Amino acid sequence: PPEVRKEIKALPGHVRAQARQLIRALGENPRPSRAKELRGKPNIYRIWLAGRWRVAYEIDDELKRIRILRVRRKERIDYESLRPSE
């Protein structure tokens, strides 16, 4: 989504590079051991990035696709507002 692209572009350089690398890796393995499924939000996961940064994403097993929902500092992600795609 365009808003996620903006979030990634606004990241500090080293975090942006790590985010892009992580997103590519999620294409190969969408459920790495360090990813945590959010309670009460089936198929929506969060994963730590550099320091206090997090990536929130959704896995669609049927379509074999991941959708990045947020790339933000831990304290700025509102996990409650995340909704699965229809």
Written account of the structure:
The protein is α+β, with helices and mostly antiparallel strands and 86 residues long. The chain has one domain: 2-Layer Sandwich (YaeB-like fold). The chain has two helices and four strands, in the order H-H-E-E-E-E. The chain has helices at 2-9, 13-28, and strands at residues 36-37, 44-48, 53-60, 65-73. The chain has a four-stranded antiparallel beta sheet. Strand 2 and strand 3 form a beta hairpin. The longest helix is centred in the first third of the chain and has 16 residues, at 13-28. The protein is globular. The two termini are 15 Å apart. The mean pLDDT is 90.
Quick summary of this structure?
With about 90 residues, this protein is α+β, with helices and mostly antiparallel strands. It has two helices and four strands; from the N terminus they run ααββββ. The protein has helices spanning about 1-10, 15-30, and strands spanning about 35, 45-50, 55-60, 65-75.
Please supply descriptive tags for the structure shown above:
globular; alpha+beta; YaeB-like fold; 2 helices; 86 residues; single chain; 4-stranded antiparallel β-sheet
